[in-house]
Amino acid sequence: EGVAPQEYTLIKMRVQQLPPALQKVKAVASKSEKVFLVAATLRPETMYGQTNCWLGPDLRYIAVETRTGEVFISTKRAARNMAYQGILAKDNVVEPLLEVKGHELMGVKLAAPLTSYKTIYTLPMLTVKEDKGTGVVTSVPSDAPDDYAALVDLKNKPALREKYGISEAMVAFDPIPIIDVPEYGNLSAPTICESMGIKSQNDRDLLAEAKEKVYLKSFYEGVLLVGDFKGKKVQDVKKSVQDLLLKEKEAVMYQE
Ligand code: A2H
């Protein structure tokens, strides 16, 4: 943990259909069109490639009301930070509308900004950290080795899907080519995972190495292949994509 605050873009992933665990409290059920899982990302320019949302099945999440009358779902720790950043209905206090475990929110349909998939699903990832961001992670398997490895696990392991009530259709999403990176091509995460022999999300050391290799190269040399900033370099448009999401009210800034 550094001393300087880390700034994240919180991507608002709208719940299209409330699962039972979110219907049981009226304050949430009555806002069924305005309930969002909020995912902390350092790479807003990759949102064109979202294929799913990761939750930790054993983590605890809460729902809170925002100052704009929406409902955000995150860890309690993140909600507390949001309360001090003017994001929630009341400043400096967290009033949970409900509490839920990640495994109660699996297979939920979401509408996420910029991605070409109209509906994507919440899926389990065992390595989601409680003490980073919101505990909600948006998945971009084209550009994030962790996301690619975890998605491949779910595609290849029926028992893992069954354990969390995930159907084959919920993981039948291909990585979307969104950024060209010299040497790694337009699907940099799958390419590096295959060349390093990464087999699953449990290959922690190899994944850390893969992430490091691809991350800087994508930032400094990557070129967007889709969207309003097609043909431009990642480092020149990261801020513009972030501004676009903020203007459309599809994201908020958050730090910790
Ligand atoms: B990034 P840093 Cl395409 N547990 O977003 C585990 N991982 C988490 C998390 C948590 N609680 N909260 C956020 N993250 C992930 C996109 C992305 C990300 C791409 C490529 C690299 C990348 C799509 N997933 O991150 O430790 C989120 O994944 C590599 C650094 O604060 C977030 O950005 O540096 C990143 O980790 C934040 O990690």
Automatic annotation (TrEMBL):
GO biological process: leucyl-tRNA aminoacylation
Keywords of this entry: Aminoacyl-tRNA synthetase, ATP-binding, Ligase, Nucleotide-binding, Protein biosynthesis
Record GO terms (molecular function): aminoacyl-tRNA deacylase activity; ATP binding; leucine-tRNA ligase activity
Residues annotated as transmembrane: none
Top-level taxon: Eukaryota
Family according to the record: Belongs to the class-I aminoacyl-tRNA synthetase family.
Name of this protein: leucine--tRNA ligase
